């Protein structure tokens, strides 16, 4: 893509973001196709991360920071704190634990001692099809709580997401994972969830958190805590199943 070529040609201090109105050739994890109609917030952002830094040593955490930034972009607005937008490990944005509203894809290239990161993120702001959108959640909240919160625009939420992400990266670089995990856990969908390992008849395990490198930790009775890598497993939220590929 164009942004992938541009990122190496611009001065280091210059930021780079591409914003799309709609997307027909987007990419998801594992080579999946990502189709996005009008009404979605769609962006690709370039950032540089030093290899010898807290985040440079834990690159898988970036997708978690971006997912958290999207949720915080909405829930940090006064009055919008209780809109039921959440993060699903490793890279999805959810309405409660019921429906996916968006996702994050991170590609990294290491050149000498700098990671060049391309962050693609998209989330449904204003299109009620095929599932639900953020403004539907706001309208639902208004009906249930008697409030008059205004709908949000894709442009506003992209700008807020980037601003929040910059702050989260600063905190992570200064304090490491513990600087952001309390907030991440506040908004994630997995607290107290049980999963099956390997198959629907596999052993039960409890989701306990994510480790220092951003991988999911599960606790299996008698086996202790183990980390599950996102690239080697599919995590089926609908069936609470972790399947080693």
From TrEMBL:
<dbReference type="Pfam" id="PF03099">
    <property type="entry name" value="BPL_LplA_LipB"/>
</dbReference>
<dbReference type="Pfam" id="PF02237">
    <property type="entry name" value="BPL_C"/>
</dbReference>
<dbReference type="GO" id="GO:0004077">
    <property type="term" value="F:biotin--[biotin carboxyl-carrier protein] ligase activity"/>
</dbReference>
<dbReference type="InterPro" id="IPR004408">
    <property type="entry name" value="Biotin_CoA_COase_ligase"/>
</dbReference>
<feature type="domain" description="BPL/LPL catalytic">
    <location>
        <begin position="1"/>
        <end position="173"/>
    </location>
</feature>
<comment type="similarity">
    <text>Belongs to the biotin--protein ligase family.</text>
</comment>
<dbReference type="InterPro" id="IPR045864">
    <property type="entry name" value="aa-tRNA-synth_II/BPL/LPL"/>
</dbReference>
<keyword id="KW-0436">Ligase</keyword>
<protein>
    <submittedName>
        <fullName>BPL1 ligase</fullName>
    </submittedName>
</protein>
<dbReference type="InterPro" id="IPR004143">
    <property type="entry name" value="BPL_LPL_catalytic"/>
</dbReference>
<dbReference type="InterPro" id="IPR003142">
    <property type="entry name" value="BPL_C"/>
</dbReference>
<dbReference type="GO" id="GO:0005737">
    <property type="term" value="C:cytoplasm"/>
</dbReference>
């Amino acid at each position: 893509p164009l942004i992938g070529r541009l990122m190496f040609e611009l001065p280091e201090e210059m930021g780079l973001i591409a914003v799309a109105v709609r997307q027909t050739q987007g990419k998801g994890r594992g080579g999946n196709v990502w189709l996005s109609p009008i009404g979605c917030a769609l962006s690709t952002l370039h950032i540089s991360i030093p290899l010898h830094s807290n985040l440079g040593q834990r690159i898988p955490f970036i997708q978690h920071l971006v997912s958290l930034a999207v949720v915080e972009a909405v829930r940090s607005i006064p009055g919008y704190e209780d809109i039921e937008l959440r993060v699903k490990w490793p890279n999805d944005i959810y309405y409660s634990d019921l429906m996916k509203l968006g996702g994050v894809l991170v590609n990294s290239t290491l050149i000498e001692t700098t990671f060049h990161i391309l962050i693609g993120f998209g989330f449904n702001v204003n299109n009620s099809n095929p599932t639900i959108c953020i403004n539907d959640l706001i309208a639902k909240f208004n009906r249930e709580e008697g409030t008059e919160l205004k709908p949000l625009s894709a442009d506003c939420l992209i700008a807020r997401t980037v601003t929040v992400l910059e702050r989260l990266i600063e905190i992570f670089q200064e304090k490491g994972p513990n600087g952001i995990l309390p907030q991440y856990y506040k908004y994630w969908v997995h607290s107290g969830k049980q999963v099956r390992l390997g198959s629907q008849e596999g052993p039960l395990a409890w989701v306990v958190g994510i480790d220092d490198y951003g991988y999911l930790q599960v606790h299996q009775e008698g086996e202790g805590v183990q980390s599950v890598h996102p690239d080697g497993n599919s995590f089926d939220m609908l069936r609470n199943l972790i399947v080693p590929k």
